[in-house]
Amino acid sequence: MKKLFIRIFDFFNTVESKIAFYPTLLAITGFLIAVIMMFAEQHGISREIMDVFPLLMVEDGDTALSVLSACLGGLISLMVFSFSMVMLLLSQASSNYSPRLLPGLISDKRHQFILGIYLATILYNIFTLFSIEPSEDKYTLPGFSVLLGIVLTIICLVAFIYFIHNISQSIQINNILDGIFVSAKKRLERLIKSEEGQTKTFPDTSNWHAYPAGRSGYFQNLSINNILQICEAEKTKIYLTIPKGLFVLKNATFLKSEKPLDDKVVQSIISNISFARGELIEDNYTLAFKQITEIAVKAMSPGINDPGTAINAVDYLTDLFALRMQKQDNGIIVHDEKANLRVAVVTFKELLFNVMASLRTYCKHDPIMVAKLLWMMKYLQSQLAAEDSYQLIINEEIKTLLEQAKNSFDTETDVSAIEKMYEA
User: Fold this and answer.
1) Are 145 and 131 in contact (CB under 8 A)?
2) Phi then psi dihedrals of residue 292, to 5 deg
3) Which pairing describes strands 238-240 and 338-343: parallel, antiparallel, or unpaired?
4) Which range is most confident: 138-142, 229-233, 314-318?
5) Which of 13, 217, 252, 364 makes an SS bond possible with 275, Cβ 3.0 to 4.6 Å?
6) What are the TM regions of this chain, as residue ranges (predicted)?
7) What does the H/E/C string look like for the chain?
């Protein structure tokens, strides 16, 4: 049952990130409302409302057809324009910042809900038009259905105004960076909280029995309780060699066991692990470091030439690295005082190197960016939660950055300024 639940949960997370998910649900809702209103009209709901509020009802069939036809045509044009704005946003974000940003922008629920409201209202008005006859008098005309269609059209106009405001905010790089940062921060905080009080050690796995995954894809999620139950039943410990969020190759070693396992047990373990064809920050916080780094690198390219954006990106990276220093690098999962499962993690050293390698390559010639990166390193060194090993890693990166920067600067003034800043 738990296995089925986690698969349904992963499937929902994957589908929810698609741009057509909520529009499809709301469009079906609009169709159902139209069917319900047809049923209500057959039971005389318009006649009863007309006796109480006659001014709210349309009393002529031709007028009702004209009003709904005008609303329908306007809404279709509005929806086409809105979709064009979304595509423009995605195109600009991909060309100016990073293609990795597209999944996060596509999964913006506000855009999906607005497009869904358009579709729901269009479908409602179409099926309401079917129920109107020009020759009908005011007592047989579905006046309440027509009134509801007009109200829904007005709601669409209000939603369009909000859509224009939201799309203008979404394209701003500060808001994009902040959205990435908030998602990664929430994920990191959950991981840090789950590691509280875990001081168990894990044996060396170099001589353990290795097994491939048998499938390829991004390691998205796993059912920890089910795998731990298998460990208890087989009297073994298990080590997953690929960090969560990274790509798993079909025939590469993915699973190691302290004791040999038969094929059925291996398949049972693999069945409790979900694989996907894309990456989400909610499942893999390291993707946030990649995205922010790519934004900074793209901003420093000659085609963009936007060092201000790169500086903002370094600010967000600094905060995320400081939070990451509070997380352990062992990946051991403790349950009932037993450490039977370990999942490989992207270590702090690997994460810092991957970020700094890209930034050094594209920013080493700019004294301002070098100074900003030094400031980031100095801030990370000052964190009280930093372990000694983290301090050594940061020192190595500082030395490498200074060495490359000195070889890239054109003037001695820049070199001396960076040396003074480092000494200070």
Assistant:
1) yes
2) -65, -40
3) parallel
4) 314-318
5) 217
6) 20-40, 64-90, 111-132, 144-164
7) CHHHHHHHHHHHHHHHCCCCHHHHHHHHHHHHHHHHHHHHHHCCHHHHHHHHCHHHCCCCHHHHHHHHHHHHHHHHHHHHHHHHHHHHHHHHHHHHCCHHHHHHHHCCHHHHHHHHHHHHHHHHHHHHHHCCCCCCCCCCCCHHHHHHHHHHHHHHHHHHHHHHHHHHHHCCHHHHHHHHHHHHHHHHHHHHHHCCCCCCCCCCCCCCEEEECCCCEEEEEECHHHHHHHHHHHCCCEEECCCCCCEECCCCEEEEECCCCCHHHHHHHHHCEEEECCCCCCCCCHHHHHHHHHHHHHHCCCCCCCHHHHHHHHHHHHHHHHHHCCCCCCCEEEECCEEEEEECCCCHHHHHHHHHHHHHHHHCCCHHHHHHHHHHHHHHHCCCCCCHHHHHHHHHHHHHHHHHHHHHCCCHHHHHHHHHHHHC
Q: pLDDT tens for residues 256-279?
A: 988 888 888 888 888 888 877 666
Answer for the pair 274, 176: CB distance below 8 angstroms, yes or no: no
The parent domain of residue 38 ranges over 16-171
**pLDDT tens-digit series, residues 302-355:** 777 778 888 999 999 999 999 998 887 777 776 666 778 888 888 888 899 999
Q: Is 79 among the domain residues?
A: yes
Distance CA 75, CA 69 (A): 10
The percent of residues in the chain predicted with pLDDT above 90, rounded, is 9
What tokens were used for 70?
């005008």
Residue 316 domain-assigned (yes or no): no
Question: Which pLDDT score, from 0 to 100, does residue 2 have?
Answer: 46
Q: Do residues 98 and 295 lie in contact, with contact meaning Cβ atoms separated by under 8 Å?
A: yes
Nearest to 249 by CA among 213, 286, 283, 221: 213
Residue 204 resides in a domain:
no
Is it the case that residue 136 has pLDDT exceeding 60? Answer: no
Tokens representing 182 are: 């908030």
Give residue-wise pLDDT tens across range 368-400.
Answer: 888 889 889 888 888 765 567 788 888 888 888
Q: Is residue 384 part of a domain?
A: no
Instruction: Check residue 195 and give its pLDDT.
Output: 74
Number of domains forming the structure of the chain:
1
